[in-house]
Amino acid sequence: MGAQIGIDLNHAAELLSGGKLVAIPTETVYGLAANGLDSTAVAGIFAAKNRPTFDPLILHVGSIEQAKTLCSQWPAAAEILANAFWPGPLTLVLPKAPQVPDLVTSDNPTVAIRMPNNPLSLSLIRSLPFPLAAPSANPFGYVSPTCAQHVADQLGDRIDYILDGGGCDIGIESTIVSVSNENQVTVLRLGGLDLEALSKVLGYPVKESLNMHSNPQAPGQLDQHYSPNSAMLHMGDFSIDAILKDLQTRGHDGLGFLWFSPQQAQNFIEQFDGQTQQALTDSPLKHYYLSNNHSDREAAMNLFGTLRQFDKDGCKRIYFSWAPDGGLGRAINDRLKRASSKVVH
Ligand code: AMP
Ligand code: MG
Fold it and tell me: Candidates 32, 58, 96, 144: which one to mutate for ligand 1, based on the most atoms within 8 Å of Cβ?
């Protein structure tokens, strides 16, 4: 039997206090939470997700005071960022306090901390005497969940309860920055807070350290991550003739297009002759749009749900286009890039 979905905060708190796993809503994506100071409970998260233990977790807190108990230093830049953006989609990586279990940080001397902006989860965390360790509530490497049902579909039989906070407003994971003692702020993962907003508050441009490694400092940095089962192919890497040939040989079976918006699709398709236009828009060929209004926020909110939809629809190959680069566009493209770096057969 699968985990119950509900809004019973007392039940969630009891389960978590007893070392159990509860999925929680946040404004970014759903998290798979456990008592962040209890190594055994935290081990359950890695097991349920099939997550390698080199991939550290984020501790979710209900106040800045609580955050300070989890790190050994709280530089001025951390205070500025937390005041400006918490609760919100920004994770701070800081030197860890001794009470934080090594399993949470994957033996790193630093710990990642965030205050999520969801009323249910904030009440839950504030009612507990410990922070919640929570990575995204999906099997490792797959697309992150943005509603309770996504969690139930994939982890329902491995966890104890799913707190239902509706759909996620932001829809992609938090932006992660490390803050050094010298107040140097370095972006480790792009996410739901755009870098322009960060730089504005700090008064200077942030440094970036977003390189992909096989043994990453932040696992959001793995080459392949956030992947649906269907193969994702960047349209710009193919000539229109190659795409048309693919359509011809495979028919429409399991083939589709992912666009940032209808406007982007139209601009692309319009450049070709009538016959090509016909081939590209022929039903039942599937076209998916991240945003109807050409908005980066709407696109981010819809991204993971749309990737899941390919799999539900039995799509085998998806041709996609990049989002425009501004605002959350960079973070969306980062996820698309990793989702598409799976070897295609
Ligand atoms: P998830 O919420 O599934 O994206 O996973 C949490 C992410 O937080 C990890 O994948 C890392 O990218 C990041 N993270 C957690 N702790 C650290 C840390 N100490 N240093 C750098 N990144 C971290
Ligand atoms: Mg994740």
Answer: 58
